[in-house]
Structures are given as C-alpha cells and as structure tokens.
Design goal:
alpha/beta, Nucleotidyltransferase, domain 5, five-stranded mixed sheet, 6 helices, about 35% helix, about 20% strand
Length: about 190
C-alpha cells in the first residue's frame, strides 16, 4: 500500500573464492591439496547426505561426515575429521566445486582460516574442476550402493562407512600405479625417510 514502509528482503551473502586449483590433479606430496564435496543416498527413511574430504596426492578419503541434512555443519565435521587426523601444514589448498553455499558460508570459511587453509572454488557449473571427488562418488554409488533402496538411514550409513574402509585400504587405483591410497602414501613416506 502507498505510504507503508517495507523492510528490505533478507539476503544471505556468500563470498566466492577464486579457482586457484585450475585442474592440477597431480600433487607431489600429501596434505598439499584437498578436494571436497557432498553427495546423497536415498533411504526409505529419507535422504542421507555424505560429505568427504579427499587428499588429492593419494586419493585417500581423509575426512567424512554422514547425516540426514546437508547444512554447513555436515561439511565442517568432515573438514574437522580430516584436519585432526592429518594435521596439515599451513597453506594447504582446499578445493570445492560448484560453489556450494555450505563451503562459501562464513562459518566454513572461519574454520579454514583457523586451520590456515587457502580456499579455491571452481567455475560456476563446472564439475570437471573437481573430477577426482566426483569420481569417488561415482565409485561409491556404482561399486557399493548400486542404487540400492535402503530401509533405514543407519543401514545406508554403515554401507558408506564400509566402502570408505575398502576404498582407502583395498581398492587399487590406476592413477596410483594400481596401489591403494594407503599403500601409495606408505611408499611415499618410506622413500622420503
């Protein structure tokens, strides 16, 4: 109505980081570049969301979180697990594709700042910029989940956790000379000693 004052709409502003990664998929050492993203699994109890952090050097999943939501806290839990397990040096490049709001949020950026990580985001709508993480999700869904209809979220969660152990410790990768991520890193540290 004329003369009424309206308050402006509430707008959430997220900052985007530049693409510092630029598809440099070959990394010389562990804990230099981590990639991350979220996927989902359908269950008869509703959606289950999986956030992962992958060390690009060995393709090892170094952090993960699973929950019935995809809020920022899911991604923070995966990041915290990776950070406390690996204790990376300052300056690690943290890359995420598709500019997800969880990764662009103030809360997530604060964690990266405290952990002294440098954030990188891909170009808009370009999943190829994070293809190793997308490839992991494809493997998870085709090799383990097989688009199975899980009755419970707990059953789906256990299946994902089972695959994570298999993926890191027993699944060989052509990019790693047909070694597992754990074998590849062990060999790196043996040779560096």
């Amino acid at each position: 109505m004329p003369g009424e004052s309206r308050s402006p709409p509430i707008v959430t502003i997220t900052r985007l980081s530049p693409n510092r990664f630029d598809r440099q998929f070959q990394v010389a050492k562990p804990n230099r570049v981590w990639t991350t993203d979220i996927t989902y699994v359908w269950t008869l109890q509703g959606w289950l969301y999986v956030a992962v952090v992958i060390d690009l050097f060995s393709r090892q999943v170094v952090g993960w979180a699973i929950d019935d939501h995809m809020r920022t806290s899911l991604c923070v839990k995966a990041l915290q697990m990776a950070f406390w397990r690996r204790k990376p040096p300052p300056g690690l490049l943290h890359h995420h594709s598709d500019r997800g709001s969880q990764y662009a949020s103030r809360e997530y950026r604060r964690h990266l700042e405290v952990m002294k990580m440098e954030q990188s985001m891909s170009r808009k709508g370009n999943c190829w910029d994070n293809s190793p993480t997308e490839r992991f999700f494809r493997s998870l869904k085709h090799e383990q989940l097989n688009y199975e209809k899980f009755k419970t979220q707990e059953a789906a969660k256990l299946s994902v956790i089972d695959y994570l152990a298999f993926y890191n410790g027993r699944r060989s990768h052509s990019i790693l000379g047909y070694q597992t991520p754990l074998e590849f890193e062990r060999e790196f540290y043996r040779n560096a000693a």
